[in-house]
Design brief:
The chain has about 325 residues and is of the alpha+beta class. It is built from nine helices and 15 strands. The longest helix is centred in the first third of the chain and has 20 residues. The chain binds adenosine monophosphate (AMP) and zinc ion. Zinc ion binds next to β15.
C-alpha cells in the first residue's frame, strides 16, 4: 500500500469540493465545471477527475506540443508521476520549495505492525505515522526526470526532450487553474549556455504562437518562482532581474487577473552541476525548459470558448484534432 504525505499538513486540503461557494468569484468556475461534469470531485481541493470531453482537449494540446517536439527531433518521454528520491534531492527543490513538495510513504512492517496499523485506522488515530518513506517522491515538474538521463558528456548538438508527467504541488485552492495534481508537458533542452538560452527564447515565441492559435489572448511576462522563505525573496528578485523565467499569461474569464498557462525557463547550470552534465566542449551544461500547464490550458479554453468543445470555433477544434469527430 502506498500513502502520500505532504511536507505541510494543511487542514484546508480536506475541504470538500461541494463546499466551494457558488458566490465566490474565483471558485465559481470550478463549481460550474463540477456541475457540468467536466471535473469530478474527490473531496480534496485542487484534486479532480477529468471527463472524456475534458481529456480529449488535453490530448489535443498534447498533440500540438508533440508536433513541435518532433520538429526539433526531441526524444519523447512519458515519465511516471513519482521521481526517485535521489534524483529529487539533486534538483535542490527542497531548498527552494519545501512547502510545495509531497513524498510517498509505504507500509514495510510484518503481521504485528499490520495489526497495529489496522487498530490505528479503526480508532481514527494517526495511522500514516506508522508508514516509512519510500524511495520515491511525487514529481514537482516533468523535466526533473530528464536530467539524470543526461549525466556525462552531451553530443555536439545537446539533447532535446519532449517530456510529460502528472505533477503534484501542495497548493490546495478553490481556483480552477490551481490544482494539486496536474499534467505538465515540456520541451527541454540540455546543451551549451547559448543553445539553452536560444531554446528558451525560441520556445517562448513558439509556445505563445501555439496558444494564440487556440484563440487565447497571450502575453509574455517576466516572472519569478514562489521561492520559500526570506532567502527566497532574494532568489526571486535575482531571477526576475536576469529574466530567467518568462510566463505566458492569459485572462481566464471567471477568475481574477491573468494566469500563467506556460513558462519558459533558463536554468543556467542549476541542473548541469548536480547531475554532472558536460557539453561536448567540456563545459558544465546549461538547460532550459518550456513548460505547458496542460490543465490550465484546458480550463482557459473551456472558460473562453464555452463548456461544449463540439461547439468551439472550427479553427480551434482543427488545431486540437477535434474537428470532424462530431460528424
Ligand atoms: P512552473 O514550473 O511553476 O513554471 O510551472 C509550469 C506550468 O505548470 C505553469 O506555467 C502552469 O501552467 C502549470 N502549473 C504550475 N502550477 C500549477 C498548479 N498548481 N495547477 C495547475 N497548473 C500548474
Ligand atoms: Zn521544467
Amino acid at each position: 500500500m502506498v500513502q502520500t504525505h505532504t511536507h505541510r499538513s494543511g487542514g484546508a486540503a480536506d475541504i470538500s469540493a461541494a463546499d466551494i461557494s457558488p458566490s465566490d468569484g474565483a471558485s465559481s468556475l470550478v463549481r460550474r465545471m463540477l456541475d457540468a461534469g467536466l471535473l469530478a470531485p474527490t473531496g480534496v481541493l485542487g484534486l479532480y477527475g477529468r471527463s472524456g470531453a475534458y481529456q480529449d482537449v488535453a490530448d489535443g494540446i498534447g498533440m500540438m506540443v508533440r508536433r513541435w517536439g518532433a520538429s526539433l527531433g526531441a526524444r519523447r518521454l512519458h515519465l511516471p508521476p513519482v521521481l526517485a528520491r535521489a534524483t529529487f534531492a539533486h534538483t535542490n527543490y527542497l531548498e527552494s520549495f519545501p512547502d510545495l513538495m509531497g513524498s510517498v510513504h509505504v507500509f514495510t512492517g510484518g503481521d504485528a505492525e499490520h495489526k497495529q496499523l489496522l487498530r490505528r485506522v479503526e480508532s481514527g488515530g494517526d495511522w500514516p505515522a506508522l508508514l516509512e518513506p519510500a524511495e520515491v517522491v511525487l514529481a514537482s515538474a516533468a523535466c526533473h526526470g530528464v536530467y539524470p538521463l543526461c549525466t556525462g558528456t552531451l553530443p555536439e548538438e545537446g539533447l532535446t526532450f519532449d517530456v510529460q508527467s502528472s505533477c503534484f504541488r501542495h497548493e490546495p485552492s478553490a481556483q480552477a487553474a490551481r490544482m494539486q495534481s496536474f499534467v505538465m508537458h515540456e520541451i527541454v533542452h540540455v546543451g551549451t549556455a547559448q543553445s539553452a538560452w536560444d531554446h528558451r527564447e525560441e520556445g517562448l515565441a513558439r509556445g505563445i504562437r501555439m496558444l494564440e492559435a487556440l484563440g487565447l489572448s497571450m502575453q509574455a511576462v517576466p516572472a519569478s518562482d514562489p521561492f520559500f522563505g526570506r532567502v527566497g525573496s532574494v532568489l526571486a528578485a535575482g531571477q526576475l532581474e536576469e529574466q530567467l523565467k518568462i510566463e505566458g499569461v492569459t485572462p481566464i474569464p471567471g477568475t481574477d487577473g491573468v494566469t500563467a498557462i506556460m513558462s519558459a525557463n533558463c536554468h543556467r547550470d542549476h541542473f548541469g552541476v548536480p547531475f554532472s552534465i558536460r557539453t561536448a566542449g567540456g563545459d558544465v551544461a546549461h538547460s532550459a525548459c518550456v513548460a505547458f500547464g496542460v490543465d490550465r490550458i484546458v480550463v482557459a479554453l473551456l472558460a473562453v470558448h464555452g463548456f461544449e468543445p463540439e461547439r468551439w470555433p472550427f479553427y480551434v477544434r482543427a488545431q486540437l484534432g477535434l474537428a470532424g469527430t462530431e460528424g
